[in-house]
Amino acid sequence: MISFTVRMTFSQDDRDEIGDALRGLAAASRQEPGCVTYVAHTVVGDPDTVVIYEQYADDAAADAHRQSAHFKKYAVGVLYQRMRERLREDLKALA
User: Fold this and answer.
1) 30, 40, 74, 84: which is deepest, by most CB within 10 A?
2) Closest alpha carbon to 20 in 73, 87, 84, 85
3) Class of 2-89 per CATH?
């Protein structure tokens, strides 16, 4: 199992566009065969910071996600263009 979080910050002016992109990306990602979990969050008290929690069955599924048309449309085409900062944290399950 592959698990990680992606934390991104955006300008308040982009909040509506980012929300729309995240809803589209999450809905499409959850339909991928190897996607176990894909949940986008805003941080309480900081609505311009987004944290996405993702889980995939294996490396191939995570790679397929990054090659998908919806990833290119929403992540590359919108989120990456508007983000101010980005941090990915790979996770290792304890149990």
Assistant:
1) 74
2) 73
3) alpha beta
Per-residue model confidence as pLDDT tens digits over 55-81: 999 999 999 999 999 999 999 999 999
Do residues 56 and 62 touch, judged by C-beta distance below 8 A? yes
The pTM for the full model equals 0.94
In the chain, domain spans:
2-89
